[in-house]
């Protein structure tokens, strides 16, 4: 059995839990991935995580058991963009991160 490509987009506004903003499989997944690439949206490939998120509906918040892994991905995306929370300036100056 061949697995078809999937793409699940999450949105997080800093309030509450992240929620599913887009979801697609096969050709629609390809379009979602291309849109993300064209708009400099962080892509993360993890088939186990995608499988966990695939059952959620658009607009539905992620389940509590995924908070930690999604929080790590969000934090990493901020670091990649050169963004750090207040008080992290000393750490920011020690890291070699190109914005």
Automatic annotation (TrEMBL):
<keyword id="KW-0969">Cilium</keyword>
<dbReference type="GO" id="GO:0009306">
    <property type="term" value="P:protein secretion"/>
</dbReference>
<dbReference type="GO" id="GO:0016020">
    <property type="term" value="C:membrane"/>
</dbReference>
<dbReference type="Pfam" id="PF01312">
    <property type="entry name" value="Bac_export_2"/>
</dbReference>
<protein>
    <submittedName>
        <fullName>Flagellar biosynthesis protein FlhB</fullName>
    </submittedName>
</protein>
<keyword id="KW-0966">Cell projection</keyword>
<dbReference type="InterPro" id="IPR006135">
    <property type="entry name" value="T3SS_substrate_exporter"/>
</dbReference>
<keyword id="KW-0282">Flagellum</keyword>
<dbReference type="InterPro" id="IPR029025">
    <property type="entry name" value="T3SS_substrate_exporter_C"/>
</dbReference>
<comment type="similarity">
    <text>Belongs to the type III secretion exporter family.</text>
</comment>
